[in-house]
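Chapter summary example.
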Amino acid sequence: MSTRVSSMQRQSHDLAICQALRQATEARTRSDFWASYVRTTLLDVAGVTEISSQQAKQASRAFLDAEMVAMKCAIRTLSARRNATVSFVSRIPEHILLQIFAILIEIDSPRILDMEYERRRSLGWIYVTHVCRSWREVALGESGLWNRIEPEITYEWMLEILTRSSTRPLDVRLECGITDIDVMMEMLGVQFSRVSQLYLGIENMVNDRHWLSRLAQPAPLLESLSLSFWNSDNDTAPPQVIFAEAYPRLQSLVLINSFHLPCDNQVLRQLVHLEIIAQSGPDMSVTVQQLMPIVAASPLLESLTLENLRPDDDIYESLSVDVFLHHRRICLPHLRDLALHGSSCAVPLLLSQLDVPVSAIVSLGLQGLIPGTFSPTWDFLPQLLPWRRNLSLGQEAHAKPTFDCLTLDMRGSVILQMTAGEHLPGPRLSITIPYRSNHRRIPDHLNAFHAQGYFGCIYSLVVAPHTLEAPDGVERLLASPGMSGLTELHLLLPEFAESSENVTRILNALSLPAAQEDQGSLWTPALKHLVLERPPYVPETNPILTSVKDTLISFLATRQLQGRPIFRFTPVLYGANQELAERAEIFLGRSNSDDVTGNGSEGDSG
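The structure predicted for these 606 residues follows.
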């Protein structure tokens, strides 16, 4: 009842305001308010003519300028008041605007655009200050939005940024040969004590050494330092200019194209994030032996990234797993994220010397010494990672797998991903193997992980059947452990009919009932979602091959007949798929339960 009374009172109040405003407007119209004001103003300067003195003309212009400024100010005030009541963008709450602006800063920073005939400066996210007065006031009022110094900033704009950021710590990116020298001098000079994050791109280690030397001064706020050496070699080391006393808050260090440290071991002992991306190439990459002392001196690391590793000696390729298992291990008890990328046996060799927590997120990139080769030490990874099984024979049958499911993507590079569960916190493992490596070894790799209890089922498989070796490539892949739990299958179709033999083979194999003594090695009873994808180089207008269509419909019909129907069928990136979707619709299963995973999308059937 009280709500209804309040609403009626508000309506009555609003009606009174509307009536009063209409009366005011009519009164202003009758009195010719603005015309009268202009006539009065012009009468004030009527005595000044073209023959008047220069002093009188200047006074007249100054008087009119002042009146015009006052009128413009009044118009801006009235416009702002009007927009505040009718414009949605002007009524967005300030805290929401600041969140939007913060996102825009990350994705649209001010930069130089290379046009066809010229280079043009883009304001990026700063354009939001041109939308309306309220947005501008919000943006200018938050000093935290103005603490970034980008590489191509002008000296004048840098001074404006320093003013708008007030006393905020600065996030600075400088690149030798690109950044204005005066900006470099200012940021690595009097403003260095305000810098909290610094990226410094060094074009030449010899010619730009003086810029590195400037890092020797105290940096009380610096928390993150990234050094990128564009034209570097492994023999030239940067000067040691970073010391714990001058960098008390430094916790993150990133080195790109170099593994030589610009700091002492005391700095390493306070780091929580270390990233070393060495140069690529057999002669330029960094060895495991060169990196292990650095890792050993960094006991507080929570995040570690090491890229472009190579083994100390090729002899490790021929050694047994026992040699790797008996290496002395460095303990990193706080490690949460580990990313390693290396050639040959470098990644297994480094893992054999690390004690990684079982709660860590691990990402491994494996590369053969020669493109297309597969190191036998990669099969040691399940025993070198922290989730290996240490169970007696009687316990193994009842032990729960470490990861709930595995997804296998063989679309380009082979990517194995193991997770504790969708959207759940916990350990994760991702392994990437180059596209040109031998796909025939992937089942062996899966067997090695399954034997150590890493996963129970393969949830999703993305495969280009025409890349699997004949005659038994399809069968070996489908016979991999955990394949009976496959729920989602993505098939990347070939462009030409002569390459479609394995598509037929894999669909026929998935229609076969398994032998009684072999529970689902070739028959995947859990399969519910089938996706057809075209290769990215094939035009969208290319139709799906007729032979593939017929095989697909036969597959769907057979699965339905055996009581294991497919519930969803999705032809992705195919323009003319309506006819195929209609044919497939007849053989798709129907379910009101949550069996069918995923969300519907355009082009789905069933």
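To summarize the output: The radius of gyration is 34 Å.
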